[in-house]
## 1
Amino acid sequence: MKVAGFIRTTLLDWDGYVACTIYLAGCDFRCPYCHNRDLVLHPDTLDEMDLEKIYKYIEDNSDFLDGVVISGGEPTLNKELPFLIKQLRSLGMKIKIDTNGYHPEVLDDIIGAGLVDKVAMDIKAPLTKERYSAVTGQDIDPEKIRKSIGIIMNSGIDYEFRTTVAPILIKPEDIESICREIKGAKCYCIHQFRPKICLDDRLEVLDPYKESVVLGMGETAKRFVRDVKIKGI
């Protein structure tokens, strides 16, 4: 496990919480719009941060920190993830995991063990093999994504699903297809695409959807999920 980034304080990564964020290197997806290019493509070139110093910072500031967000990359690729979470929980921290949902067995284990307080899972595209593989740049079995959705929705913990709406990858009508897969979910976040520092630099000249289009996607989502949030517009 390689910790390649650390944000000391954030109000953005966990709604309603003062948190810090740990970024783990490495990912099994290659989403063209990903902003963490080096974490995904060049994890071996990144400096490794000292976990003991991170633990010390959290311990020293536990009076105002509510929790820790573990992001990436893809955290569930790391076999040492449960140990990391236990160490952070021993410091009094709540834990949120950001995940692509492609490792349902890991999610099932850490949720079942009571190690996680919230999961934020990306749903990249409509759940067909062709579409999901095209958006993630990998050969994808969408049934793994469906399994993770089921685990999360039946977990009893807090969660949200989210989709980044890059125009050449996601069409407005795709939102209905995605939301049918999570019908009845607590929360679905639609993230506006931001054309900078993308994994595929060709997307950096792409114009995002107009605000009215994204808001229209939100109206579609409200037919299927309980709470819809629009972020980045």
Note: The chain has a mean pLDDT of 96.
## 2
Amino acid sequence: MAQTIVGVNSPLAVKKFGAFLAVDVGRESYFNKKMMGVGANAQTPIQTLLELQNDAGDTISYDLVMALKMQPVEGDNLLRGKEEDLKYYTDKITIDQMRGGVNTGGKMSRKRTLHDMRRIARERQTEWWARLFDELFFMYLSGRRGTNSDYTFSTDYAGFAGNALVAPDNMHLMHGGAATSKATLTAADKFDLKLIDRAQTRAQTMGGGTGGVPAIKACMIEGEEHFVVVMHPYQEYDLRTNTATGQWIDIQKAAAAAEGRNNPIFKGNAGKYNDVILHKHKAVILSNDYGAGANVQSARALFLGRQAAVVAFGSAGTGLRFDWHEEMEDRGNQVVITTSAIFGIKKTAFVIDGVSRDSGVIALDTAVADPT
């Protein structure tokens, strides 16, 4: 029976497989499927900006409007001239192109139709793109690359599209145990419920007043306010094996109470404690230079509120987030399939009174060790 083959770089294949890739990456990426919302009113940890998806340009500016702090005028005292001006602080995100590709091999190596090669290329590049996005989100939210040995990006990676990695300021950085700094962290300063309580308390009490520090807003999940903590499996192990009173058993009880929730943030979580949804992921940033001797291994868990980071997408004219391209090489013997995306990622931070202030994430540094 005759078989219809869609030729190399057919517009039909470009549009079809480019769209499939976008859907697949959204399903595979940890942050895409669990943490992302669209527009200025997004109530999730990641805010997606769409202004450049159909328009020309490579930069989006977005504003933080600080809370009013004027003292009210009482009685019939004159208000004129005492009104407070709105204070705006602006940040921006730039987009650029990233590309990757696969060589499907020569005709004798493939021994399959082009349709199969497209499917296999899409599957492999879906995994690759999902991994890239997750690594970028972890690096930007953490403000550093770290020492993770399984990252695609090199250990000296400093950022993408001109969006620099920004270290957390002092108000948005906390340490486990008795540690108060990188140098004072010891191997005993592990992740526990007390650190979550401390971060929750700080998030609820800092900012939003007259101090010039942005407030961290909780994510709205099924009509209730929650924060999210993403920790490394080593940190989750320390949390789960802590036998002290009021530790792991509290998480188990709270998780049982939340059973049946359908929101993506709740799915696959490691528990719930003090209105904080707990997650674990192996791409959480690791480092090996903590402690007085710069030899303590650490992990940086992320305490996330609303709009902790932004991501912006552009388009190469196809209207899709991913572009699909095919071409023949080696005099028609090899089919090379490449994919690309135009986007940018950045932690939400604003310069206020000369100091860069994070607005949606607290970094939680603790000592870790491989328990295996």
Note: The first helix runs from residue 11 to 28.
## 3
Amino acid sequence: MFKDTHNHILKITPIKILDLSIIINNRLILNNISCEFNDGSITAILGPNGAGKSLLLQTINGLIPISNGKILFNSKQHDKNIRKQQAMVFQTAVLLRRTVLGNMEFINSLNNKTNSVDAKSILQKVGLENFMDKPARLLSGGEKQRLSLARALLLKPKLLLLDEPTANLDPYSLKLIEDTILEENNNGTSIILTTHDMSQAKRLASNIIFINKGKVIEENSSKEFFIKPKSVEAKKYINGEILL
């Protein structure tokens, strides 16, 4: 349904992070991080609370200024054209005080579009076709998150960033969102997500980046990471132990 018809658009993957540090309020949050996100992959960023997962995602999206180091998008540094080819879904849905369809039409208006065909087809994709006229604020938590994902997909991003996209959601919403993630990836979208759900990481991710205390501890394929992690920290995390 959403095959790439924009071959002229600048290719922004693979993404290489080189010696990246983020300092906020004189506190070192991300410490000399280097890692890579492959073209067309689904990468899960794993780690305990406070490790820096969400901050790394926001930095890739251009929401957090870089203190040191750099991020290269297919050898190019961040600019407005690269930003336009990304979309981010936050853990807590932030929706407009409009109907479900009204939220989608607002995104279309940002792109100078008036055709609602894409909007309605994407809402159907995430199971919201019968909620188009419902105020977004009256949706359940799972429905709100599905609407957030739908708005992101309307931008037709080449890079989709998902911060804990299914945390505390009902099973129906979780399944719909995961199925949509896999379909978008099959259609060529590169995806980076954070999650505490290791079963989800196993279902979705081809690659794992494990971080702790603002540092990349391990970077591996999903299969290798869960079967034979290289680091002591990763082994403890997989076994459910508390990392101090």
Note: The chain has nine helices and ten strands.
## 4
Amino acid sequence: MSKTARVIEVFPSIQGEGIHAGRRHLFVRFWNCNLACHYCDTDYKGPYREVTPEALLSEVETLVRQSGPFHAVSLTGGEPLLWAPFLKGWLPSLKSLGQRVYLETNGTLDASFKEVSGWVDIVAMDLKPPSATADRSVWTEHDAFLRSAHGAGRELFVKIVVTADTREEELRKSFDLVSQVDRKIPVVLQPVTPWGPVRQPPSEEQIARWTRAGEETLSDVRVLPQIHRLLGVR
């Protein structure tokens, strides 16, 4: 097991994305990612601290005592599952503090998820159509991950960031991928927040059309913005 992990920051804030938006979370942001989405607004390769499980647990415990209670401790990044060997050793201690664990993941590292799934309560899985991310296709990885997350019996929802360049055929493929596992899995369409090279969010007409397309195969499709960006918080 990894003795240390690279952590960018640990901070309390409002969950800004997905079906738990608006809840108070304690965020642990891990360094690095295995994808490079061009709309990403996080400096996931920025300055970091090398932390031991004991040091990180102590930091979380202090913040829970000072600023809690929190709905959950949110593991975010970057991609936190890159640190699965560390998490496998650390999460049991975190659970012993009585904390709910919320995993924010790009949904491509199925084997790593299986290592830690027993200590995760909520899985917030990004599904990434390549026309939106301008990165490589990861459909096979998404399918394997989604089936594992659903099979683990954890609370699960899927988030799809959509841009003006998102292709409807890729969204329909995304909806089909989810529905083939369970049409009741909530799917959130998240209009991109303009950032870096991405300046154009999808139009009202695009969002309406894509929502209707999702409802043809899924029972729970929602459109939610990044509320932490609207509020001006981290």
Note: The chain is about 35% helix and 20% strand.
